[in-house]
Amino acid sequence: MPTAPIPGFHGRAEELAWLRGLWDACTTRDATTGRYTGGPRMAVVVAESGIGKSRLVQALYQQLTIDPAWDPPEVNYWPDAFNDQGVQLRVVPDMEGHLANGPPRFAWLGARWQPTDVRNVSDRRSALPELRHSMMVHAEILRRQGSAWQDATGRIRGAIEKDGLGEALGQLADAAVPFGGLLMKLFKGAADFAKDRKDGARNVEQAEDAANKTLVDEVCECMHALVHGAGGLPVVLWLDDAQWIDEETQEFVRRIWATAQLHRWPLLLVVTHWEREWRELGKAGDAADASTLLAMQGDPGVEVRVLAPSQPDALDSYLRTRLPGLTAPQRALLLEKAAGNFLTMVENVGQLLRVPQNFVDRDVAKPLAPAGERLVQKWESERQKRVEQRFSELAPELQEMLGWGSHLGMSFLREVVEEFAERVAGQPGAADRLREAVDPLVILGEPSEHLREFRDRAFHHVARRHFEEYGSEHAEALDQVLRERLVEWVNNSFDETGDEIWPDDEKGISAPPRAITGLSNEEARDVLGMAVAFLPLA
Question: Which residue has the higher pLDDT, 524 or 459?
Answer without folding.
Answer: 459
